[in-house]
Write a structure and sequence with these properties.
By secondary structure, this protein is α+β, with helices and mostly antiparallel strands. 16% of the residues lie in helices and 25% in strands. The protein has one domain: Ubiquitin-like (UB roll) (Roll), CATH 3.10.20. The protein has a 5-stranded mixed beta sheet with strand order 2-1-5-3-4, covered by helices on one side. Strand 3 and strand 4 form a beta hairpin. The longest helix is centred in the middle third of the chain and has 11 residues. It is globular and about 40 Å long. 23% of the residues are buried. It comes from Roseofilum reptotaenium AO1-A.
């Protein structure tokens, strides 16, 4: 399935300054691998050594946080939009 990934500005240096990237994937885990294939060096910025998304990044599928779905096993459908959003903290 072709899926659109919205890339945050700090990671766009891995996507040749593109704000969106399209990849084929059936799950979020496959999407992360496909993103690494298409944009070498990006996956270690998104995932820790065990392959799980880093705590300071949120990943949304159709505006739903994958932490409240099936995590990286969350299924994707043709045309889905996946957003990678850096967490914001402050006081």
């Amino acid at each position: 399935m072709m899926v659109k990934v919205l890339i945050p500005t700090p990671l766009q240096k891995y996507t040749k300054d593109e704000a969106t990237v399209e990849v084929q994937a059936a799950t979020v885990a496959e999407l992360l691998d496909a993103l690494e294939t298409k944009c070498p060096g990006i996956k270690p910025r998104i995932c820790d050594d065990s392959g799980k998304p880093r705590r300071f990044l949120n990943i949304y599928v159709k505006e739903e946080d994958i932490r409240f779905l099936d995590g990286t096993a969350t299924p994707l459908n043709e045309g889905d939009e996946v957003s990678i959003v850096p967490a914001v903290a402050g006081g």
